[in-house]
Structure formats: C-alpha cells, structure tokens
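Sequence in, structure out.
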Amino acid sequence: MTEKNIDQTDYCTDRIKSYRANLFWAVLWVGSTFLASFGPRLIWDYATVSTVIAFLANLTFGALMLFHTIQHIKLHDELEQKIFYESTAITLGAVLVLSVSYELLEKIQLTSEQPEVGLVIVMISLIFIASQLILRRKYR
C-alpha cells in the first residue's frame, strides 16, 4: 500500500469511529431526555433526588454530545465544514425568525394555540436537513 492509501484508510476509519461516537452520545442524550421527561411520573413518583439526577444526567449527556459533535466536525475536510457551518447559520437565522413569528401569532391573538417547543425542534431539524441537502447539491 502506498502512503496515500494508508492515510486515506486512516481518515475513513477515524470518520467511522467519529460517526459511531456521535451516534452513541446522541442516543444517550435522547434516552436521558426520555427518562428525565417520563421517569418522574412513570417510574419514581416525582421523587426529588431521582428527578434531579435524571435532569443533571440529561444536561451532562447533552453537553458531551455537543463536545463530540464539535470534535466530529473537526475531522471533516474544509468543504464539509463549510457546508455544516452554513447549514447551522441558516438554521439559526430561520429558527430565530420563525419562532419569534410563531410566538407573536399567539400574542396578537391570531391563534389560540400556545407555542410548543416540540414544533420548534421539528422545525430546526427540517431546516437543518433541507439546508444540508441544498448546500451539498450546490457544492457538488
């Protein structure tokens, strides 16, 4: 094998390990979110210590997930990083504008529905995925 092939293989192996680590922390965070949300009512009958532990675990796993996402992005080449950063910027701007407008609808009484955080999370996900797909096509 040439030195270039070895470097390419190491790069691919590192990325696969990074994807797996990212998936691990994301699953752990989602699981801890589920536990912190439903555990007090369904498992430990609102016991304060258990609830605080679940809440702190959720914050910790979320922070670790963010840390590993940053490390994961650093493994990518410049184009992948650019696409990620542009998608993140688009998502941040769009969600800021749309969530303020969403909140405003209720305040000015054009809807009687209370704004739901779950809908904002879905909006964030869809905007990020769409911007990733559009930018990948643009830079192809």
